[in-house]
Design goal:
164 residues; mainly alpha; two-stranded antiparallel sheet; 2 strands; 46% helix; 5% strand; elongated
Length: 164
């Protein structure tokens, strides 16, 4: 389910679109496809930054996600209208850029979103960091004490064992 309640809300950053219907350019069906793409773009950015795509309703995180989705959907629907209509091109790129800027700010505002209605998804505490120990670990590693990978005693440095 998208972050905005309906198509009219999702495209509210571009009031010049008016009410979309089956006979407008773009049609409401085409605008819904664009809106779904904007929703997916916001979700992908959240996931790429280690955040869950589910946010608490009426929270700061929900408002942030709605606004980013609004900018992207409004700009892209307006771009679709401008490719056929007259002079819609000037506002559309600015709206899309604002949405992409919001998504680009996720690494900086990640903790704020977690504190205000979003939750961490699977992953590390910081999306920009990863643990070498988990990313590059040997899948065949046996952590059992006394096993081949974790001996009870260290391998002797000197062949005669005098270092033990």
């Amino acid at each position: 389910m998208a972050y905005n309640a309906d198509l009219a809300t999702a495209t509210s950053m571009a009031p010049q679109l008016g009410t979309l219907s089956g006979s407008t350019t773009p049609t409401s069906t085409q605008a819904n496809v664009i809106w779904a793409r904007a929703y997916d773009q916001v979700r992908a950015a959240l996931l790429a930054n280690g955040l869950s795509t589910t946010v608490t309703a009426s929270s700061v995180a929900a408002g942030w996600a709605q606004r980013a989705e609004m900018f992207l959907a409004s700009g892209e629907v307006l771009m679709a209208k401008g490719s056929i209509g007259v002079n819609a091109e000037s506002t559309a790129p600015a709206l899309i850029t604002m949405g992409e800027t919001m998504l680009g700010s996720l690494p900086d505002i990640r903790q704020m979103l977690i504190d205000n209605g979003c939750s961490e998804d699977k992953g590390t505490a910081d999306s920009r960091m990863g643990s070498h120990w988990t990313r590059a670990k040997n899948p065949e590693w046996d952590a059992t004490p006394g096993g081949p990978d974790v001996p009870y005693a260290a391998t002797p440095i000197f062949p005669d064992g005098s270092d033990l």
